[in-house]
Specification:
Helix content is about 45%, strand content about 15%. By secondary structure, it is an alpha/beta fold. It folds into 2 domains: about 190 residues, NAD(P)-binding Rossmann-like Domain (Rossmann fold, 3-Layer(aba) Sandwich); about 120 residues, N-(1-d-carboxylethyl)-l-norvaline Dehydrogenase, domain 2. The strands form 2 sheets. A 7-stranded mixed beta sheet has the order 5-2-1-6-7-8-11. A 4-stranded mixed beta sheet has the order 4-3-10-9. Helix 7 packs across helix 11 and helix 7 crosses helix 13. The longest helix has 22 residues. The radius of gyration is 19 Å and the shape is globular.
């Protein structure tokens, strides 16, 4: 495996595409608008501290133009995935793995898992089941991405922190295709551990995201400002405990407590959440696939989540008033 397709050339997609291309992988990226034009014209610029590198890659405006691929990394915002489902068939051969890189509850989650009485398709994640039907969960390889990055200008991505992309098959196996993807990422200088229980790691990040992202939207605070404010930190812990309880109702144990999870984010103290960055830029934000999915699952499993319920309502209003939701 020496080629890859990146669908969505935002901050994380751009970082991943640049690292792969700079390592010699033949990268095809699907992008739109100013990002597409800038990368076609100047290449994709990756900035890390004082280092500035330009990656050359094939960038196209549609999956039809991209054609069938060895591996596809989906790096678009979670709320944009369902609308993209109908466009993905041209990049998928019968055995093409689709690595879902992003925040939120993954659309394939209940494939080869005991659903605990939950419909495998959640309205907050995959309305009308478009992703499940049109991509097919058999193509999915789970991924929990930890890098922090931002797009500073069209065609320019700044890497801030982290280089780990944890990978895992829905059935818990260490499959040949997952091993090939891990080798591809590792050769690009990234960390790509293979997990036999990727769902536990998904819930660990979801506990952080469902708390941090909405609270940052309401407060405008960086991670460090939220951590350093005693009352806000206590609120975050309560929110995380509710998410962890929802995970437990599905038989998933999150290995770390909220305080430990929060300390893991301490190196990102100066960083703004991706949701806050989107709000400030006037872009649609990820609410439903993250906090909305946790609340939807809580209702289905009859787990009380009063703090998350209130936070979700306030966040939706804040985003709606800013023109970044709905």
């Amino acid at each position: 495996m020496n080629s890859a397709c990146i669908v969505g050339l935002g901050a994380i997609g751009g970082y991943l595409a640049a690292r792969l291309a700079l390592s010699g992988v033949r990268v095809t990226a699907v992008a739109r608008g100013a990002q597409l034009e800038a990368v076609r014209r100047n290449g994709l610029v990756l900035v890390a501290g004082s280092r500035r590198e330009t990656a050359q890659l094939r960038v196209v405006g549609s999956t039809q133009e991209a054609g069938a691929q060895e591996v596809v990394f989906l790096t678009v915002k979670a709320q944009d995935l369902p609308a993209l489902a109908t466009e993905l068939r041209p990049v998928l051969a019968s055995d093409t793995p689709v690595v879902t890189v992003g925040n939120g509850f993954p659309w394939w989650y209940f494939y080869r898992a005991a659903p605990g009485g939950v419909n495998p398709v959640l309205a907050s994640v995959d309305p009308r089941g478009a992703l499940w039907r049109l991509i097919g969960p058999e193509h999915a390889v789970g991924c929990v991405a930890y890098p922090a990055a931002r797009t500073t200008a069209p065609g320019v991505v700044e890497h801030i922190y982290g280089q780990r992309f944890s990978l895992g098959e829905p059935d818990g196996s260490i499959s040949p295709r997952a091993q090939r993807i891990a080798a591809l990422l590792t050769a690009a200088g990234l960390e790509a551990p293979l997990r036999q229980d990727i769902r536990s790691e998904i819930w660990m990040k979801l506990a952080l995201s469902a708390a941090y992202n909405p609270v940052s939207l309401l407060t405008g605070a960086t991670l460090g400002q939220m951590l350093d404010d005693h009352g806000t930190a206590a609120t975050l812990q309560g929110l995380m405990n509710e998410t962890i309880a929802v995970a437990a109702s599905l038989g998933v144990r999150v290995p770390l407590q909220p305080r430990q999870l929060m300390e893991l984010t301490r190196p990102l103290a100066a960083h703004k959440t991706s949701s806050l960055q989107d709000l400030e830029a006037g872009r649609r934000i990820e609410i439903d696939p993250i906090a909305g999915a946790v609340v939807e699952l809580a209702r289905l499993r009859k787990v009380p989540t009063p703090a998350l319920d209130a936070l979700l309502a306030l966040t939706r209003l804040r985003a709606r008033l800013a023109g970044c939701y709905g």
